Amino acid sequence: MYRRRTLESFLTKASRQFPVLLVTGARQVGKTTFLRHLSRKGRTYVSLDDPMVLSLARKDPALFFQRFPTPLLIDEIQYAPELLPYIKLEVDRNRKPGSFWLTGSQPFHLMKGVSESLAGRVGVVQLLGLSRKEWAGRSRESRPFLPTLPELRTRTRTEEKLPMKELYRLIWRGAFPAIALNGRLGRDLFYSSYFQT
Questions:
Q1: Are 30 and 5 in contact (CB under 8 A)?
Q2: Choosing a second label site near 35 at 20 to 30 A (CA), which of 12, 102, 156, 170?
Q3: HEC states along the chain?
Q4: For the segment 60-103, what is each residue's pLDDT rounded down to a tens digit?
Q5: How many CB atoms lie within 10 A of CB 184?
Q6: Of 111, 52, 44, which Cα lies nearest the Cα of 77?
Q7: What are the Cα distances from residue 109, in Å, to 103, 138, 172?
Q8: What is the pLDDT of residues 24-36, one digit of tens each?
């Protein structure tokens, strides 16, 4: 089940500005779901979780890009950093905004390769777990939050009050979409499995 994310409009604007867009974040925050939801018809999707696709990306990046033309969404780019110089070459040939959308779950290792290959060509967006408004299906109401006294007063007056027990339950379950949106999933099993993998 997809929940509209607050970053949708920001990502759309960033994609009009940069030839490459990288969405990073922890595993299971919904990066792939988010980008696939926003993909227009005609954007090729490829996952480097697929061993055959990953092998092609690592052994023959030029053939990889012949096989998967732009506009292209490459999921889990950190598995094939060999693709980054080829993305740079393509971007330098054709600076078309939104040509490449990338996801990556390991930002520190990934960012080294991105900063070396794609400096000035890539917009980086970090996707976090669901906000309370996203969880409630009210992401359109969200706006950037600065904790100024007037803003805190406005929010205190206008925000829906949650009973303390419900607030603690939301915090305890966490913000990963799979667990936050499905009350039937066991929290302890989800997190113990998440941390072990």
A1: yes
A2: 170
A3: CCCCCCCHHHHHHHHHHCCEEEEECCCCCCHHHHHHHHCCCCCEEEECCCHHHHHHHHHCHHHHHHHCCCCEEEECHHHCCCHHHHHHHHHHHCCCCCCEEEEECCHHHHHHHHHHHHCCCEEEEECCCCCHHHHCCCHHHCCCCCCCHHHHHHHHHHCCCCCHHHHHHHHHHCCCHHHHCCCCCCHHHHHHHHHHC
A4: 999 999 999 999 999 999 899 889 999 999 999 998 999 999 99
A5: 4
A6: 111
A7: 13, 34, 30
A8: 998 899 999 999 9
- Residue 77, classified by CB atoms within 10 Å of its CB into exposed (0-12), middle (13-18) or buried (19+), is buried
Q: How far apart are CA 108 and CA 72, in angstroms?
A: 23
Q: Residue 53 in contact with residue 85, Cβ under 8 Å?
A: no
Other C-beta atoms lying within 10 Å of the C-beta of residue 194 = 15
**How many Cα neighbours within 13 Å face the side chain of 136?**
14
- For the record, the structure tokens of 173 come out as 């379950």
Domain-wise residue ranges, the chain: 8-126, 145-196
Which residues fall within 8 angstroms of residue 3, CB to CB, at 6 or more apart?
130, 134, 135, 137, 139, 177, 181
Instruction: Using a pLDDT cut of 70, give the percent of the chain over it.
Output: 93
Architecture of domain 8-126: 3-Layer(aba) Sandwich (3.40)
Question: How far is residue 134's CA from residue 3's CA, in Å, rounded to a whole number?
Answer: 6
